[in-house]
Fold:
Amino acid sequence: MKIFTKSFTSFIIFAAIFTIIFRASLSALLNNESYIMVWVAAVAYGILMFVIGVYFGKRDSIESVIYNLFLRWNGGTFIVFGIISYVWMLFGNPAPSESLGVLNITMIIWATIGVVVYLIMRHYSIKGIEKSEIFD
Structure:
């Protein structure tokens, strides 16, 4: 089973670019105390990530047959966001109101929700698939 398809790699690259832009914008908006714009940026980032995920995900489903895509795509986004956010917090220019504690809590909540959703969804993902397709 190929994990890093062309579409998934393209998604990861775009996710990294958009996450860097989001982190820089978030810090700048927090420094300026533009709290409404922080929410606008966060919602826009979420929508943008969803749209590129759907776009590249649909292309990926055409290119390859891989089951349990949720874990791979959500996990990829989680890793990219986590690495960029921790690097930004340690070496970038975070706002004084940003803290590693909040980032840690965010990552723990995201990981917990991701695992729970994966565990629920994996039960449904193998219905109707032949054993020979699953166990090569």
